[in-house]
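Please fill in the sequence for the structure shown.

STRUCTURE ENCODING:
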């Protein structure tokens, strides 16, 4: 698998989009026959009528009105999109007096093409709003290819990965009819929609695109966050010490990482990657000490603020998985393990690794999601550099209304400053995607500077941005742990620059690591790419 192909993975699993869609073909019919659905529930069939009033079609991109299990996508199994679609349509109709709106749903490019072809025949639709409700249903490019003005909007913690990746690529291509909005409030979508009539005035499409951009910039400018951060003293290895230490480290991949960079990683950094089957970890799980596992499960249950929809048996299985991972690391003399979590759970593994990852990271080791080699490598380098500070792998979300980037995943360390630092509180809940197993919602510290990275030995580049941690969220949509940061630098650049080339994941660390990261890049002869 090449790095570019990894962009099409489900946000929280190692299943390729092609395999995923093939597997979903039958379920979509059972989930609501989406291929036959035209308008969201709660709205009568509407036809775009000729007349002086501008008509804009809203296309909701989603797999099913109520999310089925097999989609394995944000916002999560069982999510009911119907109220969201109804509220969105009501807000648009009430907030855009000059526009007549009609609504449709689409689960991919073929359905989008079908809708646009019908609109071309009628000749009565003047533009499109495409709302990305799930992460991976494609079709936005087909709307852009219509030549009509298109407003692309993210449903935060629903469509965010697909939105960010697609937006970056379309902006880079320079499509003149494409505008976009990523906000946690529908108000910004309504304000952006009110720019459609500008296409009929001097400036045409460019006036529409510029108008939507002004809505974004105004929303961001309205946020006046004090960027002064709490004191955070770093204890760092020197660059020479770091490079020497990395040559002693090994990473376990179960079963196959997103990229084939084993030679590049060994040559540039000295880190060895060992690929092992799920069966090895499963065999270790079978012989894990149940009494010891029970003690760990009891501790988790007692120290968690809340345990929601997770049984004692599930906690025990998770504790046994932690012991199995710890033993596997010891067997291979490794310091890091990354696992295709959902893929393994669907095949042979009997416990999610999320709580075990929390334990490993709190000990200064590394447990990383989705068999993501890039993020795991980044964590190994920075955790070693900082003498134990863990990374937080995430699927980021951009919210212009709050001028935030929100890092979200279903696991994080509770000791953000390293094994000797204070522990944050956490809840135990099911995994967000399938509402099964056990994952964690950590209440991460706020007020501190964070550094987010991806390190790529194939291109000899380090992707870099920073942000002040300002909030956490218990929003039930998307992954469980959510850390909101106000970025340092150009928010618009962060929103549009790197997501199609670098993928969705970022690894976030507490601390102002700009100086040591740049020093490491200089020592390696690599380039730092500042995405903000």
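FILLED IN BY: designer on duty
SEQUENCE:
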């Amino acid at each position: 698998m090449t790095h570019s192909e990894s962009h099409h993975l489900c946000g929280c699993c190692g299943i390729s989009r092609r395999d995923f869609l093939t597997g979903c073909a039958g379920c979509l019919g059972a989930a609501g026959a989406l291929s036959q659905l035209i308008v969201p529930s709660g709205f009568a069939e509407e036809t775009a009528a000729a007349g002086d009033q501008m008509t804009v079609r809203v296309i909701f991109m989603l797999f099913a009105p109520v999310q089925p299990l097999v989609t394995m996508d944000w916002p999560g199994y069982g999510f009911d999109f119907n109220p969201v679609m109804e509220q969105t349509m009501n807000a648009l109709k009430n907030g855009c007096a000059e526009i007549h709106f009609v609504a449709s749903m689409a689960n991919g490019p073929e359905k989008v093409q079908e809708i646009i072809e019908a609109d071309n025949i009628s000749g009565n639709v003047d533009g499109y709003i495409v709302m990305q409700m799930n992460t991976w249903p494609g079709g936005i490019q087909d709307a852009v290819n219509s030549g009509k003005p298109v407003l692309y909007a993210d449903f935060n913690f629903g469509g965010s990965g697909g939105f960010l990746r697609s937006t970056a690529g379309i902006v880079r291509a320079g499509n003149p009819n494409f505008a976009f909005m990523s906000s946690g409030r529908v108000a910004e979508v309504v304000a952006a929609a009110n720019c459609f009539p500008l296409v009929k005035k001097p400036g045409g499409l460019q006036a529409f695109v510029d108008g939507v951009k002004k809505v974004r910039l105004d929303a961001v400018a309205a946020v006046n966050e004090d960027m002064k951060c709490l004191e955070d003293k770093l204890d760092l290895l020197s660059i020479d010490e770091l490079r020497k230490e990395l040559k002693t480290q090994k990473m376990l991949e179960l079963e196959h990482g997103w990229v084939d960079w084993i030679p590049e990683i060994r040559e540039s950094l000295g880190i060895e990657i060992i690929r092992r089957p799920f069966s090895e970890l499963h065999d270790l799980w079978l012989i894990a000490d149940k009494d010891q596992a029970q003690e760990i499960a009891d501790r988790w249950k007692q120290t968690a603020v809340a345990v929601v929809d997770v049984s004692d048996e599930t906690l025990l299985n998770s504790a046994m998985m932690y012991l199995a991972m710890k033993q596997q690391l010891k067997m291979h003399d490794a310091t890091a393990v990354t696992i295709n979590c959902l893929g393994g759970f669907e095949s042979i593994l009997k416990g999610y690794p999320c709580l075990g990852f929390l334990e490993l990271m709190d000990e200064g080791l590394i447990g990383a999601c989705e068999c993501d080699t890039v993020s795991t490598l980044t964590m190994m380098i920075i955790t070693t550099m900082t003498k134990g500070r863990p990374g937080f792998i995430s699927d980021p979300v951009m919210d212009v209304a709050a001028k935030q980037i929100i890092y979200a995943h279903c696991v994080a360390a509770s000791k953000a400053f390293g094994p000797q630092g204070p522990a944050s509180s956490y809840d135990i809940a099911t995994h967000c995607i399938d509402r099964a197993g056990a994952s964690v919602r950590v209440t991460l510290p706020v007020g501190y500077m964070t550094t987010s990275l991806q390190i790529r030995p194939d291109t000899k580049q380090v992707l870099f941005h920073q942000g002040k941690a300002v909030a956490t969220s218990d929003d039930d949509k998307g992954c469980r742990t959510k850390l909101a940061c106000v970025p340092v630098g150009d928010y618009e650049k962060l929103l549009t620059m790197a997501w199609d080339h670098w993928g969705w994941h970022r690894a976030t660390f507490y601390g102002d690591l700009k100086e040591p990261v740049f020093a490491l890049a200089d020592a390696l002869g690599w380039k730092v790419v500042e995405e903000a």
